[in-house]
């Protein structure tokens, strides 16, 4: 099928005009919501696609209202515009994706909030319990290439894969925890189940940008990406707050019951994933139907972009820091006299305040599209908050840690959808799951590395206080500060063109070229 623009010099027969009028009428009758009017794909887009290393001899998709080769409206007659629609059914898939992100994150922090009780139950050290979280995170980069391939097929296969792994992994964990005794669990079986739940995470954590690109327009993508992505740390918050309550008074025999409850909740949440719609009946925006380059061509393009590289590094470091502080917060605070419950509340504050802040910031970014400015403002504030947190546990007053944790959450969580959407914009027409998976894989890998480093930085039993993580707090503050000069460089030194929003411009170009 040849590419057509909004104007053509060649003529068409009366029969072709009649067929086109019928097609346009049928197209206008489909959809659940208000239409979005735009023109057809332009030749310039075909050229950009060819530059990405893909053949253009035949288009890889069909547009319902394109005429056959050689067809065009007679001179002086306006062509009918391309009609795009959004569908109400998209909300079912969105909520299911958000729900699975909550569950896999809760699975990640099943044991960290009650690390001492879990260590006693399974008869292992605290370091071994930390490895349950670390192994979960390391599963992400291992399965990342498979994630990108499956997401290339569409969000639904990826979501179903995650649901299946979540179901199997949770019940294997319970199989290693079923004895209701002070000591009775099988750590090896639990680790195997934990790795399976870790393998489930990439398929839903990397999916929000792909899902929003397929089902939503530029007027709602930031907000929907935020809702689906930040459901993941919401699950971590639920784990921090609920798990200690399920292990009453830190009794190790309650660990078995806690794992059972988490398995039941995970099963209920995972089953609806097999019934979500696979794709909208028609594209919702011009950018949604643009041909995507192959995976190898996409990786070559990403490797050549300095701006995409900076964003990937910054995102990975801050996600790694969040994973680190979420996992080790109890061990950061307990040496200074804080209880596991107080540390759990601190983790909840970190996440809940972050979710509220992101809910406020995301709609603003949806309207203004000021992604670069937001990143340049939020990153320094977040880094300074990590710097101040070095001295907060040593105050032995709970207010200080809570305030700084709230600041870390507010700025860090607002960064997540902003960075993910900017990555998609700067790398367009590369499919969104490529940069999204790379960003999250880097964050999970660095999170695991940071946890291992801070585990080695724990002070000895003769320190004041014993086994404190002061050196670990310094380390995470240094890593946060390193990112500041990187993001400040975005768009500087004559590279303003490199931070233009390519996907937004593509949609606007098609709309402005419409002939109504």
Automatic annotation (TrEMBL):
GO terms for molecular function: transmembrane transporter activity. The keyword Transmembrane helix applies. GO terms for cellular component: membrane. It holds the Pfam family MFS_1. It comes from the Eukaryota. It is found in: Membrane. It is a multi-pass membrane protein. Residues 1-27 have a biased composition (Basic and acidic residues). Keywords: Membrane, Transmembrane, Transmembrane helix. The keyword Ubl conjugation does not apply. The chain crosses the membrane at residues 91-109, 129-151, 158-175, 187-208, 220-243, 258-279, 308-325, 345-365, 377-394, 400-422, 434-453, 473-493. Residues 1-35 are annotated as: Disordered. This is Related to permease of the major facilitator superfamily. It comes from Cephalotrichum gorgonifer.
